[in-house]
Write a structure and sequence with these properties.
Elements (H helix, E strand, L loop, with lengths): L4 E2 L14 H10 L4 E4 L13 H4 L7 E2 L2 E10 L19 E5 L10 H14 L4 E2 L11 H11 L2 E5 H4 L7 H15 L3 E4 L12 H10 L11 H10 L12
Parallel strand pairs: 1-2, 2-4, 4-5, 5-6, 6-7, 7-8
Antiparallel strand pairs: 3-4
Helix pairs in contact: 3-4, 4-6
């Protein structure tokens, strides 16, 4: 499957990544992307920036190196209540919000706790996608969470870094299971490199292969075209982005 949007990338602002936004944009162009989301870690992650960093993304140009830039964040799930660590005042300045479990912020607990946290963050309405769900340290009830995601139009991320097998060890098989169940339940899927260095932006080969192996319909992969991604944002209730009207 051809993927032209990378919805999960980091700059050095995350504290443990190594490239600038412009360097990421250049790699996005070189790797054939039409659009990418800049999604640095939010403030509860050690080394991450203050929430003003995300609010101030309104100053960013809509295109860099000819590639459309989506203003986003990878927020941290904080607790079983599904709270995330982005101040509500920031929401209006963001186009795209991922929610993810990270061990330094949310200590791994039991399957039911993780399930409740994911369902609650979905129902909270502030997040557009769930990040790197394959992590076996955060086991959850696939059917219950995916059912909630379908009901609330929250995308399931398939993460290319996870599929390499040397990050979040044990995730690969789980990603296939999540994809299969998501397909059967009619979920939307998004694709992210989780790049922490610019050369990885747009590297989505493993994700593409998984989507093909599971036969996910292109209509359910929101990153298969810029217009499909933008339509998904509008489905989520976000206002159209005027600068992208021609895409």
């Amino acid at each position: 499957m051809n993927l032209v949007v990378d919805t999960h990338t980091h700059t050095y602002a995350s504290g443990h990544a190594y490239s600038t936004l412009i360097e990421n944009a250049r790699s996005a162009k070189e790797n054939g992307l039409q659009m990418f989301c800049t999604t640095d870690h939010s403030e509860s992650m050690p080394g991450a920036p203050h929430y003003w960093f995300f609010s101030n993304q309104r100053v960013l140009p809509r295109f860099l190196e000819g590639v459309a830039v989506i203003r986003g964040v990878e927020s941290n799930l904080l607790n079983p209540q599904g709270e995330i660590d982005i101040h509500h005042t920031v929401d209006r300045n963001l186009d795209w919000v991922i929610a993810s479990f990270h061990e330094p912020v949310f200590r791994p607990q039991d399957k039911e706790t993780h399930t409740q946290a994911l369902i609650n963050v979905i129902q909270g309405g502030r997040v557009d996608a769930l990040g790197h769900l394959g992590n076996p340290n955060f086991d959850f009830d696939f059917e219950r969470v995916i059912s909630a995601a379908v009901a609330h139009n929250v995308a399931l991320e398939i993460n290319n870094t996870t599929l390499k097998g040397n990050s979040r060890v044990g995730s690969v098989e789980r990603c296939f299971d999540i994809a299969q169940i998501g397909k059967e339940m009619g979920a939307f899927f998004t694709t992210g490199s989780d790049a922490h260095f610019c050369q990885d932006v747009g590297q989505l080969e493993l994700v593409s292969r998984l989507l093909d192996d599971v036969s996910i319909p292109e209509s359910k992969v929101i990153t298969s075209s810029s217009r499909q991604f933008l339509d998904f944002l509008e489905l989520r209730g976000r206002k159209p982005i005027e600068e992208y009207s021609a895409l």
